[in-house]
Design brief:
four-stranded parallel β-sheet, Rossmann fold, 2 domains, 14% strand, five-stranded parallel β-sheet, single chain, alpha/beta, 12 helices
Length: 308
């Protein structure tokens, strides 16, 4: 693994290797065991989208690993004034040991990796959110003891979260069902991967539908996300109407397994994609998921930037 651009690029074993290391790093930090695996290393963090969890978890994670995080706002970089990505990549490769980028277009991340001589980590794009989904899978495994054979259900928009959860779930042996309104489907590249997985397995390991209640039947874990992501603020009212009925609430959870988990990548809009009651009832799982961003991303950084 040279970069983390999207989960489509990884094998199931590579994902599990990251999760295993994340578990180990979490154990060590909880037991005050120092792990300066990236001592003397520097991570540049490019942010073209605002962030709470991504920025704080990468900065703290790099610090805990003994390295130095460097926040790079697009407002402060020449890339924000039109410098080509390939030039930025080649310059930063001479200063840094790795780059994390949180931006809009997946192509920008792919181009950065094409021209950089150092590892590139996708902190989020409109297409994929691999770091979040690694944390999600880590959390499900913590609470359920396994991933293989579990049913994951995503209710909502065919956005970067749905894209990455479909891929991550299937690659780690889960059955995946998704429900979304007409016109809000996941990316074609992801649907192609999921349909191929159905064909190769000879089983229905991936199900796509427009009925959230149908999708939630027998689920071990229910995922949701905001209806309007960053950059879609002007569509917010239109999306509220389109997604009415796609809320994670008690009625929907009644169709899942009695011990079903609920996961939300946050921030949550209570009363829209999830009720306040459901969020609070599953707050322990949801905020453990948020914490696990720290541990999963540390594992990614060690895998990519640590001494081989």
């Amino acid at each position: 693994m040279k970069h983390l651009l999207k989960l489509l690029d990884l094998t199931g074993d590579e994902i599990l290797d990251i999760l295993n290391l994340a578990d180990q790093l979490k154990y060590e930090v909880k037991h005050n065991i120092p792990h300066p695996r990236l001592a003397g290393k520097s991570l540049g963090m490019i942010f073209e989208k605002s962030s709470t969890r991504t920025r704080v978890s990468f900065e703290v994670g790099m610090y805990q690993l003994g390295g130095h995080p460097l926040f790079l706002s697009s407002r402060d970089l020449q890339i924000g004034r039109g410098e080509p990505v390939e030039d930025t990549a080649r310059v930063l490769s001479r200063y840094l040991d790795g780059i994390e980028i949180r931006t809009f277009a997946q192509d920008e991340v792919e181009d950065l990796a094409k021209y950089a001589d150092i590892p590139i980590i996708n902190g989020l794009t409109d297409f994929a959110h691999p770091c979040q989904v690694l944390a999600d899978l880590m959390t499900v495994r913590e609470f359920k003891g396994r991933l293989q054979g579990l049913k994951m259900c995503f209710i909502g928009d065919g956005n970067n979260m749905m894209n990455s959860l479909i891929v991550g779930g299937i690659k780690t042996g889960m059955t995946v069902s998704v429900a979304f309104p007409v016109g809000y489907e996941p990316a074609g590249q992801v649907l192609e991967f999921a349909n191929k997985a159905n064909e190769e397995s000879g089983k229905q390991i991936f199900t796509l539908c427009h009925d959230p209640l149908e999708a939630a039947k027998g689920a071990d874990v229910i995922f949701t996300d905001v209806w309007a992501s960053m950059g879609q603020e002007e569509e917010a009212e239109k999306r509220r109407k389109a997604f009415a009925g796609y809320q994670v609430n008690d009625k929907l959870l009644a169709l899942a397994k009695p011990d079903a988990m609920v996961q939300h990548c946050l921030p949550a809009h209570r009363g829209e994609e999830i009720t306040a009651e459901v969020l609070e009832a599953h707050a322990n799982e949801i905020f453990e998921e948020a914490e696990n961003r720290l541990h999963a991303q540390k594992a990614v950084m060690v895998k990519l930037m640590g001494d081989k």
